[in-house]
Amino acid sequence: MTRIAIIGGGNIGEALASGLVADRTGAAADISPQDVTVVDHHESRLNHLHDTYGVATTDDATEAVTEADIVVIAVKPYAVSTVLEEISATLDSNDSETVVVSVAAGVTLASMENALAAGVPVVRVMPNTPMLVGKGMSAVAGGRFARREQVEAVRDLLGAVGTAVIVAEKDMDAVTAVSGSGPAYIFLVSEALVEAGVHLGLTRDVATRLANATVEGAAAMLVEGGSSAAELRGNVTSPGGTTAAAVRALEENGLRAAFYRATEACARRSAELGRPAVEED
Ligand SMILES: NC(=O)c1ccc[n+]([C@@H]2O[C@H](COP(=O)([O-])OP(=O)(O)OC[C@H]3O[C@@H](n4cnc5c(N)ncnc54)[C@H](OP(=O)(O)O)[C@@H]3O)[C@@H](O)[C@H]2O)c1
Question: Where is the Pyrroline-5-carboxylate reductase dimerisation domain (predicted)?
């Protein structure tokens, strides 16, 4: 039995709790709702989480982390230090080793390790919002006290809410620029496609349905088809055809360069937020 405490029952905490409870085939398959305890300040959130997923709930973080195997910190970055302060002594007195996992953007492994007793294994995760619908992409980095199998166990558990890969912490800013903020880029592309369709005379409703279903279909081909994005695009770009004309216009208007610049700006901002005083998400 793996006992999991989730501190913070907001968007990400709920996504994790629901995924862990629903997982019947992956690494979380043997975790029952009673093995998951969610901690939050808000009684209404706790009632909702208990009633919906059957998980245990409490407003007392120390109670939840007592003898927990894994503690997931899912509060806003500025609140992480308060949580660590609250649970540190209990973690230190647990009989077996507790792995502390943080999903907080920009909060470094070193800052968390420094706030806990020496030797506590810490794992940092950068998730993204599709986790809320079980299709998250998470990157996982282990701290200096986290053993390989502990990092792999966290990666496997995240399989309950999507896919996860192990990376070095130095790559987290780049991860943020690609998958962390990536859903927003795709939403922006879809939004632009809708406006362009309206400009061509389609109703907003029809343009929205066309654009959304196109993003969904293209994403399914990418994930399930086994071909690269470049191959798939090549397959639908006939010589001298309509798609070739559109792709040429996109390239001439700097689409590729815009992504280089956007991801550089995102990674730079992520690095800034990761410096000592983390005040923003
Ligand atoms: N949402 C995303 O798409 C996303 C994507 C990637 C990473 N993340 C990361 O995930 C983390 C959580 O984000 P979220 O959107 O789930 O936040 P959220 O919806 O604000 O949820 C956090 C919850 O934790 C509660 N809380 C704060 N401090 C607490 C404490 N000491 N003890 C118990 N409960 C406490 C909050 O209550 P109060 O409101 O009263 O503070 C709130 O209900 C953030 O660090 C963020 O960087 C989020």
Answer: 169-273
